[in-house]
Amino acid sequence: MTTPTRVLVLNSGSSSVKYQLLDMRDDSRLAQGLVERIGEETSRLVHTPLQGGGAKREKNGPIADHAAALKSVAEELAADGLGLDSPELAAIGHRVVHGGLRFTEPTVIDDEVLAEIERLVPVAPLHNPANLTGIRTAMALRPDLPQVAVFDTAFHTTMPESAARYAIDVETADAYRIRRYGFHGTSHAYVSRETAKLLGKEPAEVNVIVLHLGNGASASAVRGGRCVDTSMGLTPLEGLVMGTRSGDIDPAVTFHLKRVAGMSADDIDVLLNKKSGLVGLCGDNDMREIRRRIDEGDERAALAFEIYVHRLKKYIGAYYAVLGRVDAVAFTAGVGENAAPVREAAIAGLEELGLAVDAELNSVRTDEARLISPDYARVAVAVVPTDEELEIARQTFALVGGETLGGVNA
Ligand code: ADP
User: Fold this and answer.
1) Which residue, 214, 207, 184, 192, is CA-closest to 330?
2) What is the model's pLDDT at position 15?
3) Of 23, 80, 152, 284, catalytic
4) Does the beta carbon of 11 lie inside 6 Å of ligand 1?
5) Which one of 151, 169, 190 terminates a domain?
6) Which of the 8 DSSP states describes residue 358?
7) Could you tell me if 132 and 206 lie in one domain?
């Protein structure tokens, strides 16, 4: 009998599903794809077989809901001989954005776990309902298969209360579960571990500041493999300047806008989440475009870049102080991996902290994890490509591995 070694990773958004099928024997990718604009007339499925030399396939036309989307995904996989009914499939791993305080580890999903994820909807109204739909659909398709939830918040549950609590009335905070949860945890976990590997050390031996700079952006302070602080809070709005989110802001801005501009809570939500950050500052949220405009002498783009970098630098300094000793600062995600000028500007002037960037190393373009600090620097500066799908697949497989290899399915 075949030992199941494949894991399907599903990342379900409100109108999209991203997926990857991996073989955990060697972490190789067998296929990946995306269904977008679910529920619209113009839905699109893009499927890429990654082994056997097949070409990318695209399907356009209405896909009514997540169930239909997943059915189409299953058909595409089956066409490559990788169907969901394959005995080689060990489990399905689901990205779940909010796990609250209860889920500190990846968890095999059952009715009780589903109910708890549902209970967290009020603190993650945009994400958890979509994640739940994806899980329920996948469970209907393969009810016999272990399905695992991997939570974005889990890595941050090790934060001490001093970092996790807001300084507000404790009864109010507890009644409404208001505290700092943090997000992008899968990425922070993966990147902090890979950074230790790059330094030739165990995660327990190193202190790392991870800067996950994508469209959403967050920083974390990781001591000996455990998160001790992170920049996102109750929601992914807090912290760094992002593509369209303001990050840190005086909370009084919200009631000021309500009083003087007559804006509703929903208006302010849209303003701070969708119309702020780089987009609000200069109209663009793509760092490539912003750099191009700066090269052409555009002052708004230049100011947006300065504000972005200023905030980043403040967090590097803050987390340096939180950790006391820092072994590495690691840049990751779209901006962190690709935008050399952001890395250079964020580290510039921090020589007294033992931080420096080597211009030549910083300009190298590669997908490999690498150091960009000069030999003499006391603290390593690294670029470490994140891989949330691989991390979800690893955590999922580790959780069901015993079961599938030695248990009921063997
Ligand atoms: P998401 O949060 O959507 O997962 P990503 O991690 O993919 O985001 O990052 C997307 C962002 O990365 C883009 O908006 C852009 O600003 C930035 N980016 C991607 N490629 C480059 C590049 N070559 N140079 C500079 N910035 C880049």
Assistant:
1) 192
2) 87
3) 152
4) no
5) 151
6) -
7) no
Task: For 15-40, give one letter per residue: b (16+ CB within 10 A) or e.
Answer: bbbbbbbbbbeeeebbbbbbbbebee
Instruction: Report residue 205: phi and psi, to 5°.
Output: -90, -10
Distance 385 CA to ligand 1 centre (A): 12
- Please write the tens of the pLDDT for every residue from 246-265: 999 999 999 999 999 999 99
Residue 182 in any domain: the answer is no
Domain boundary among 94, 118, 151: 151
Find out whether 214 is annotated in a ligand binding site. yes
Q: Cβ(288) to ligand 1 under 6 A?
A: yes
Q: Residue 1: which pLDDT band, with cuts at 50, 70 and 90?
A: low
Does the C-beta of 385 come closer than 6 Å to ligand 1?
no
Q: And the tokens for 21?
A: 């099928």
Please give the distance, rounded to the nearest whole angstrom, from the Cα atom of residue 334 to the centre of ligand 1. Answer: 3
pLDDT in tens, 71-98: 999 999 999 999 999 999 999 999 999 9
Domain of residue 82 covers 6-151
Q: How far apart are CA 406 and CA 410, in angstroms?
A: 6
* Catalytic residue check, 358: no
Mean pLDDT taken over the chain = 94
Q: Per-residue pLDDT for 404 more than 80? A: no
Q: Is the CB of 339 within 6 Å of ligand 1?
A: yes
CATH code at position 101 = 3.30.420.40
**pLDDT score at 401:** 79
407 pLDDT above the threshold of 80: no
User: 184, 232, 274, 288: which to mutate for ligand 1, most atoms within 8 A of CB?
Assistant: 288
What would the pLDDT profile of 16-58 be if each residue is shown by its tens digit? 899 999 999 999 999 999 999 999 999 999 999 998 888 999 9
Q: Are 206 and 131 found together in one domain? A: no
